[in-house]
Amino acid sequence: MTFQLRREEVLDGDRLKTMLDESPARAAQAILIAARENLLDAQALLGQILLDGQGIGQDQPLALRWFEIAAQRGHLMARNMLGRCHEHGWGCTADALVAAGHYRIAADAGLDWAMYNYANLLATGRGAMADQCQALDLYRRAAGLGHAKSMNLLGRYLEEGQYCPADPQAARDWYQRSAVGGDFRGQFSYAAVLADEGDVAAAMGWLRQALAGGNLNFLRVASKALASAADPQIRALAIEYAQRQTELERCPL
User: How many CB atoms lie within 10 A of CB 231?
Assistant: First the structure.
């Protein structure tokens, strides 16, 4: 089936993103046309849908190529995605050093996701010499830009006093902002604070949100942590976490 698309629709980057939710196949056709018309956002989007297989056949090497095209033209998220591809071996041989280089370029240009990804490599010493202080600085910068995952990690540094003075109140504030921002790990962290404060009802609400959005690795760790919680309501929730973990192991997303 073919679709007749108006030129202005094809070249409208915001419209393409909306179409991805409404009709992936129609959006994929529009994105392909727009990418060939040199629309920069469409070139980056084409890389993403090829990587995900959204509305189009999955093709990681071709996704990598479109990310390269968009990154060479200055698209920061495409540059960040090049880093992701090289970090995880999507369409290429995994190489953390190359990934770090791409992340650093996009981070220096102000992209919050690249700051977060580069900080993760610095924190673990992958692709770059381990540097917790620089990692903390990048998490702090990304958090200041509204990046929810970085907010949670900044809260962790502040809670534990790692490479900075401990500040439990600031940690609580960042956990709360991360939770509200939709990060499941931030929701879990904030729930832990609330539980320690005695607000079990509120903690349970955030734990259920974290359960709904959490990935497999998170659920594996979180279910064990909940099983040792002091409050019986929270301990009981560990069963639901374990059940969801089993579901994802059987049918991964």
Answer: 14
Of 148, 125, 120, 149, give the one whose Cα is nearest residue 136: 120
Digit-coded pLDDT (tens) for 125-144: 999 999 999 999 999 999 99
> Cα separation of 131 and 238, whole Å?
35
Q: With beta carbons less than 8 A apart as the criterion, state whether 245 and 227 touch.
A: no
b/e string for 76-93 if b means 16 or more Cβ within 10 A? Answer: bbbbbbbbbbbbeebbee
Contact 171, 159 (CB under 8 A): yes
Residue linked to tokens 């094809």: 10
pLDDT of the residue at 22:
86
Q: Has residue 45 got a pLDDT over 90?
A: yes
- What CA–CA distance (Å, rounded) separates 139 from 150? 5
Q: How large is the C-alpha radius of gyration of the chain?
A: 20
Return the axis-axis angle of helices 60-72 and 40-52, rounded to nearest 10°.
160
pTM for the model stands at 0.92
CA distances for 141 relative to 5, 26, 111, 153, angstroms: 41, 37, 10, 12
Integer angstrom CA distances of residue 32 from 120, 182, 209: 33, 31, 36
Q: What percent of the chain has pLDDT over 90?
A: 88
